[in-house]
Amino acid sequence: MANVSVYNMEGNEVGSMELNDAVFGVEVNEHLVHMAVVQQLANNRQGTQKAKTRSEVRGGGRKPWRQKGTGHARQGSTRAPQWTGGGVVFAPTPRDYSFKINKKEKRAALRSALTSRVADNKFIVLDELKFDAIKTKDFVKVMNNLNVSKALVVMNDNDVNVVKSASNVPGIKTTVTNTLNVYDIMKYDTVVTTKAAVESIQEVYA
């Protein structure tokens, strides 16, 4: 089992913690990680784009000139795509971009993402992360103590003081263990988590 150091909010090492190899020590499957990221981005797309085709554009009902004898190319409508104000060829229409991947694949991708962060020494465990009040300055101080600038902060429960203290800090995102996802883990340079959150993750994904 891998061992990681446990720090306090002052950035001092106060102990160590064993990580479960079934979650934090698996063989990294880059294909599954990529597929999980693509799926999340695709599922987030609204898919509400729309442009009009030649059948939907207003006007152009009459043939602009007779078929033969004018010297012009034959035309059937002034709303054909080659005309100014005409319809769009193969215009985009509202659609659903989402697709599914298997639950086992999604869990394996999350394990791979967590393992890669541990292997790169980008996984920081805190003994606790608590504030008495909502103070952005206090949260920034903790991140500075840990030498972290762009991080995903994972908590076991939704601590309002921590969430609101971090909300205005650029490069920081807070989440809880039950909404943890591959895209966020890979997007942010470092994962900062609490001991309680690590234990919760190991219970769910081991």
UniProtKB/TrEMBL annotation:
<dbReference type="GO" id="GO:0005840">
    <property type="term" value="C:ribosome"/>
</dbReference>
<comment type="function">
    <text>One of the primary rRNA binding proteins, this protein initially binds near the 5'-end of the 23S rRNA. It is important during the early stages of 50S assembly. It makes multiple contacts with different domains of the 23S rRNA in the assembled 50S subunit and ribosome.</text>
</comment>
<dbReference type="Pfam" id="PF00573">
    <property type="entry name" value="Ribosomal_L4"/>
</dbReference>
<comment type="subunit">
    <text>Part of the 50S ribosomal subunit.</text>
</comment>
<keyword id="KW-0689">Ribosomal protein</keyword>
<protein>
    <recommendedName>
        <fullName>Large ribosomal subunit protein uL4</fullName>
    </recommendedName>
</protein>
<feature type="region of interest" description="Disordered">
    <location>
        <begin position="44"/>
        <end position="87"/>
    </location>
</feature>
<dbReference type="InterPro" id="IPR002136">
    <property type="entry name" value="Ribosomal_uL4"/>
</dbReference>
<keyword id="KW-0699">rRNA-binding</keyword>
<comment type="function">
    <text>Forms part of the polypeptide exit tunnel.</text>
</comment>
<keyword id="KW-0687">Ribonucleoprotein</keyword>
<dbReference type="InterPro" id="IPR013005">
    <property type="entry name" value="Ribosomal_uL4-like"/>
</dbReference>
<keyword id="KW-0694">RNA-binding</keyword>
<feature type="compositionally biased region" description="Basic residues">
    <location>
        <begin position="60"/>
        <end position="71"/>
    </location>
</feature>
<comment type="similarity">
    <text>Belongs to the universal ribosomal protein uL4 family.</text>
</comment>
<dbReference type="InterPro" id="IPR023574">
    <property type="entry name" value="Ribosomal_uL4_dom_sf"/>
</dbReference>
